Amino acid sequence: MTSHRSDAFLILILRLSAGLCLLGWAWVHLYWEGPYGILLWNENTYALAESWGIGWEEFVGSGANDGLVQTGLKWIGWLYVVCAAVTISVRSGAKIQMTVLALGTGFLTVLSYAKFLSAQLQFPMFLEHGGQMLSPALLGLALTWGARHRATVAVAIIAFIATFAGHGCYAIGWLPTPGNFHAMTSLVLGVEFETANLILRIAGVLDFIVCIGILIPATRQVSAIYATAWGLMTAIARPVAGMSLSLNYWGADQYLHEAVLRAPHFLLPLFLFLLWRYSDETSPSKKASSNVSEESRTDESS
Fold first, then answer.
1. Which of 80, 103, 127, 237 could form a disulfide with 166 if both were Cys (CB 3.0 to 4.6 A apart)?
2. Does some domain include residue 247?
3. Could you give the CA distance from residue 165 to residue 210 in angstroms, rounded to a whole number?
4. pTM greater than the 0.70 cutoff
């Protein structure tokens, strides 16, 4: 594959990563509600609204209609849709579209901060959203400086490590492992709690191993391809465990977006794997070795 074509494919992966993540969170905002309760449903927020002449009923809603908070969250949801759409068409030098990408990263950062507060300041909760938060910014870097630029690769590695280290802290048991981790493992694999717990502990150890392996040239491709497979499996585990033929829409409205918004968890490792694979194949040492082999075969045949 030529360098130009491979670079275009790498950027396509980043477009999908950012676009699917933003689209998944747009569904959360428009169909359910954004996870900002801890930021919005408090006395300070209401006091601010009251100072603007907004009463309690207008603030929370009357039951017949949405209040200020719900209406605002739906508008944020539509902004997520706009950001997702921009990932398809954004080009290098398009200042307005690049600003929208930056806005997408800002939205995802605030969202991750709200989840961090809701998790009682557990830093790994914020950390494991690193891939999602950085996906729009990573696309912007790739379009501006190139998919193979040092800054682009460095940010992709940071996003990779943040995601898997954050997940690993919960899976290995350093912080209380979320109940849905055990539930998904048990349902998808058909195992008892003890076996599911052991599998999660092993997965947590492997999360940290790949975080180290991604930094070592000799092991980075293996680490990236493992992370691609594991990220994909953990993403689709949500709908696989939750969807059922007995539910309306088979439960797709409740669970499918959980896989979609986690697209960076497997697409960013895939981006790194393909980037390094193509780079290694076209490196000067590889070319020199190939030339030597060709010359040897020519000499033998003559």
1. 127
2. yes
3. 9
4. yes
